[in-house]
Amino acid sequence: MDYTAFFKKNLDTLKSEGRYRHFANIERRAGDFPKADLHTPEGKKEIIIWCGNDYLGMGQHPKVVEATTKTIAQCGAGAGGTRNISGTTRYHVELEKELADLHNKEAGLVFTSGYVANEATLSTLGTLLPNCIIYSDSENHASMIQGIRHSKAQKRIFKHNDVEDLRRLLMQDDPSCAKLIVFESVYSMDGDIAPIKEICAVAKEFGALTYIDEVHGVGMYGQKGGGIAQARELEDEIDIIQGTLGKAFGLIGGYITGSKELIDFVRSFAPGFIFTTSITPSVAAGCIASIQHLKTSDQERVRHQNNARTLKGKCAAAGIPYLKSESHIVPVIIGNAEKCKQVTDALLHDYQIYVQPINYPTVPIGTERLRLTPSAIHTEEMADQLVAALVEIWQRFDLSFSDCSIEDTNAA
Ligand code: PLP
């Protein structure tokens, strides 16, 4: 077989469909987020990032930077092993306690990323729970889909955020089978929020475990930053709360929290937890500093919500069509991969604004979009510049303006 020809043919297909991924080579500057330098063959230039997930700017927070650098100086760069074989340090132990407290659960377990937390936990539970059936929201993230696939458990896909469809599927199954309902709090591409209370009520009725991905909720919602379930006082109704340390908390890593027994079970049986080097002590220390800060400080959350509301208001006033939702995410649908790339290229090269185009398979074909993520550290002037640039680009590419008026209020 001509392997090179095979690889090239498939890459050419991606290119011809306009969804080949070009990465922007950037360098973030601590203390100056969301500004960064873009590196190109012609040199570097300053840009403003409008598509990042460091939603609260914690990646440059002085407490986080200090905890991380101090721990590198004390403990060195790496973890030195898997969690089982010399890779559990006092920072990992403290971080897991911090996470359990964040979600008001008995125990927590840290993984190398949010992706790995989902994949490892769902594949392990689906494989080992007897006759397990997994009920998965149709818009769940790829990491959950892979975990469910790898478990080889039976799966049922319920219509997005549709509790009646979930109930219909549960009613058709054998009551004696183990059941696990898997969903997200904030869906990161549309910004909509799950009917958590109703899903938990149906789960109880049918004796199912509940698993929520709070990756786009943790740090940003809830009294202590525990996510949407916390904001809605529903944490007790959920068996497993999963989250990331790589978005609002500003570093890297993922986790689950739940009962002592469930966490010990995943710790003991999940290959994705056991057979990999643990996150570095310095990252764990930075995560502890970030979580502790956001448990008591509300100012980042308030600024974040205000900035999201401001950007939506400015887009609405200028006629830039965005998907309305209760969350902080502002999706602007272009509906075509090539056009989406042209728009983001124009933003980057003509206006020094970086927004990555979002294409299939991250979103369905025909819904290609800009996913604008206002953060706590964007200024109103930056929002004005972004909207002015979008208006000029909309005119240049003859895109449709809308007359949408703002109805949503970030009311999570
Ligand atoms: N879950 C959802 C809903 C996500 O959007 C993502 C990442 O974008 C993940 C999980 C993976 O988290 P991480 O980036 O920490 O691997």
What is the strand tally? 14
Residues in β-strands, percent: 15-25%
So what's the overall shape? globular
Described by strand count, sense and barrel closure, the largest sheet is: 7 strands, mixed
The first-to-last residue Cα distance is 54 Å
Write down the Rg. 22 Å
Query: Which ligands are bound?
Result: pyridoxal-5'-phosphate
Report what the structure shows.
With 412 residues, the protein is α/β, with parallel strands linked by helices. It has 14 helices and 14 strands. The chain has helices at 3-16, 62-75, 90-102, 114-128, 142-151, 163-171, 196-205, 228-231, 260-269, 271-274, 281-296, 299-318, 337-351, 380-396, and strands at 26-28, 35-40, 43-49, 107-111, 133-137, 154-158, 179-184, 209-213, 240-244, 254-258, 330-333, 353-354, 357-358, 369-372. The strands form three sheets. The protein has a seven-stranded mixed sheet with strand order 4-10-9-8-7-5-6, with helices on both faces. It has a four-stranded mixed sheet with strand order 1-2-3-12, covered by helices on one side. Helix 3 (90-102) packs parallel to helix 11 (281-296), helix 4 packs parallel to helix 5 (142-151) and helix 13 packs across helix 14 (380-396). The protein is globular, with a radius of gyration of 22 Å. The chain starts with a helix and ends in a 16-residue tail after the last helix. The mean pLDDT is 96. Bound molecules: pyridoxal-5'-phosphate. Pyridoxal-5'-phosphate binds at residues 113-115, 118, 141, 143, 184, 188, 213, 215-216, 244, 246, 254.
